[in-house]
Design goal:
Dihydrodipicolinate Reductase, domain 2; globular; Rossmann fold; 23% strand; single chain; 330 residues
Length: 330
């Protein structure tokens, strides 16, 4: 199987290559794609050396699947060209997510919406992915009326420049600023750009994408996005108000038996999800599970996941695995 990774030299693209290897995805020929300045650069994959090619050349090579992590403008311009050539595109950017005809997929939640006719498939935002993995099983049982989510997001979600800014600040060096403020020893309630309604683009994604993936526009979502100086993953404080009441032991049982979730909830032993533990892993970790006594039918969760893996690379590759299992790509 020919597999193109568009943005192969970037932060997420590098993790995509690693996850493809780890999960033994049946790649016969890798097509690493990057910007013109990286063309010809060598990449080692499964013990073989591959040369980075331009995106125009990659289209002509007709891969079975192209996994994009190169930004919305690249996806907008090039995803249709791959699709017209018979390639299935799995896009990690924000470009296609809210098009009604484009499926927005988290395999544990809604892979069943995919068909052989879908040539462009959108990978959700990293914060949305871990959120819906955690809440979808509960939504099925109790129906979510309202969701309040505050995120504590890793600098890796912004990219290499942000990680370097944090490390430079930590070492007392003059930093090239990815953010409008220092990030080390700081946090700020700002992800993406601000909209007229006072929310940010990252917060709006949590509203729109959660409703689309769960297939329920009646869910009220109130998000706040915060950037913090960590690298291991994103954390989320989640408050759910259900239509139906629940027993707390049933919440534990449902989450324990749901795909992609690991419960870490032994507070007496200081065991709860943390980015430091989630880094490099593919599961969504859920802890601090407790009833919200301030209003009826309500629950608090703490949700942590590696945003570069399950929040991006792994989710995209799980989509490709599903397509391969269905024999829609080979």
């Amino acid at each position: 199987m020919k597999v193109a990774v568009v943005g192969a030299t970037g932060l997420v693209g590098t993790v995509m290559l690693k996850v493809l290897e780890e999960r033994n995805f049946p790649v016969t020929t890798l097509i690493p794609v990057a910007s013109e300045k990286s063309v010809g650069k060598k990449i080692l994959f499964q013990g073989k050396e591959y040369s980075v090619v331009s995106i125009a050349d990659a289209v002509k090579m007709k891969p079975a699947v192209a996994i994009f992590s190169a930004g919305a403008s690249t996806s907008r311009d090039w995803a249709p060209k791959f699709a017209e050539n018979g390639t299935v595109v799995i896009d990690n950017s924000s470009c296609w997510r809210m098009f009604p005809e484009i499926p927005l997929v988290v395999p544990e939640v809604n892979a069943d919406i995919l068909t052989p006719n879908h040539k462009i498939i959108a990978n959700p935002n990293c914060s949305t992915i871990q959120l819906v993995v955690a809440i979808n099983p509960l939504h099925k049982h109790y129906k979510i009326k309202r969701l309040v989510v505050s995120t504590y997001q890793s600098v890796t979600g912004t990219g290499v420049k942000a990680v370097k800014q944090m490390h430079d600040e930590r070492e007392g060096k003059k930093a090239d600023m990815a953010y409008p403020h220092p990030i080390d020893m700081n946090c700020f309630p700002h992800g993406g750009s601000f909209l007229e309604n006072g929310y940010t683009t990252e917060e709006q994604k949590l509203i729109d994408e959660t409703r689309k993936i769960l297939g329920d526009n009646s869910i009220m979502v109130s998000p706040t996005v915060v950037r913090i100086p960590v690298v291991g993953g994103h954390s989320e404080s989640v408050n759910l108000e259900f239509i139906k009441d629940y027993q707390i032991q049933d919440i534990f049982s449902i989450l324990k038996n749901s795909a992609g979730i690991t419960i870490q909830d032994t507070p007496a032993q200081n065991i709860y999800p943390m980015p430091m533990y989630a880094e490099g892993k593919d599961d969504v970790f859920v802890g601090r599970i407790r009833r919200d006594d301030s209003q009826p039918n309500s629950l608090n969760l703490w949700v942590v996941s590696d945003n570069l893996r399950k929040g991006a690379a792994t989710n995209a590759i799980q989509i490709a695995e599903y397509l391969h299992q269905k024999r829609w790509i080979d």
